[in-house]
Amino acid sequence: MLGKCTDVSDYPVKVKDVIFHIPYLANEKKFILWKCFWPDCHNCCERQGRLPLTSDDLIAIGKGLKYQKTSDFIKKETLIATWKEAGPASTDTIMTSINLKRKSDETESDDGTHIPCRFLDKTGACSIHPGRPGVCFLYPFSTWLENDNDRARVHSTFQFTGDCPGFYLSETLDPMKEVLKEYSVTIYDYNMKYTRTTREGFSLANFV
C-alpha cells in the first residue's frame, strides 16, 4: 500500500518510553492506524517469518512444554538463524538468534518463509499463550533501539508485510491512544529483555 504513495511522512509520537513512528498521508490528511480482528483473523500466526526468543522465553516456553532442562528445550524445539534487518539511517543489522521452531521439522533454510505456527489451534488461539514468545506480542509493530547521547531510545513502527487487514485511515490518533499506551509497555519491556539476551550470549547483532 505505502509503496504506491508519494505523500507519506513520519509522524513521531512519544508514548511513555517509546517513540512510535506513525505514517501520515499528507494529501488525504490522515494517519494510518491499526486494529486487531482476532479471532476472525490470525494471519500474524500463520505467516510469521521467524520467532526469535529472549532468554526469558527460553525458560518460560521450555517449562510450558514440560521440559525439565532448558538445554533440552533448546536442543529439540529451537534452531539458530541469521538474517538481515533494515535499520534507521540506511543501516542494516545482521541478527543471529535462537528461534522457536514454527513446525517440528523446521530447518535454517526455512527462515524468513511464511509457515503457520504449530501452536495455533483450530479456533485461532495460541496453545502456549500467555507463555508465547515475546516477539508475538509486538505484532503489528517492529522495534529498534537507537543511541541518543549514550542513552538507549526505543523506537517502533508498523510492519507493512501485506498480511494484516487491520490498517485503516483516520484524521486523528484518538482511536489508537489506548492501544499505543498498552503497546508502549510491551515494546519497551521486550527491548530490555532482548538487550539482556544479547548480553547473556543468546543472540548477536552486528551493524553493517
Strand content: 25-35%
Regions with pLDDT < 50 over 5+ consecutive residues? none
Please work out how many helical segments DSSP would assign.
Answer: 4
Task: Provide the residue-averaged pLDDT.
Answer: 92
Cα Rg:
18 Å
Helix- and strand-based class? alpha+beta
Task: Label the overall shape.
Answer: globular
Order of helices and strands: EEEHHHEEEEEHE
Summed up, the domain count is 1
Give me the count of strands: 9
**How much helicity do the residues have?**
10-25%
What's the end-to-end separation, in Å?
28 Å
Please summarize the sheet with the most strands: 6 strands, mixed
Report on the architecture of this protein.
With 208 residues, the chain is α+β, with helices and mostly antiparallel strands. It has one domain. 22% of the residues lie in helices and 31% in strands. The protein contains 4 helices and 9 strands; from the N terminus they run βββαααβββββαβ. It has helices at residues 43-46, 55-64, 70-77, 177-199; strands at 8-15, 18-25, 30-34, 78-86, 92-100, 141-148, 151-158, 167-170, 203-207. The strands form 2 sheets. Strands 1, 2, 3, 6, 7 and 8 form a 6-stranded mixed β-sheet that branches. β4 and β5 form a beta hairpin. α2 packs across α3. It is globular. The two termini are 28 Å apart. The mean pLDDT is 92.
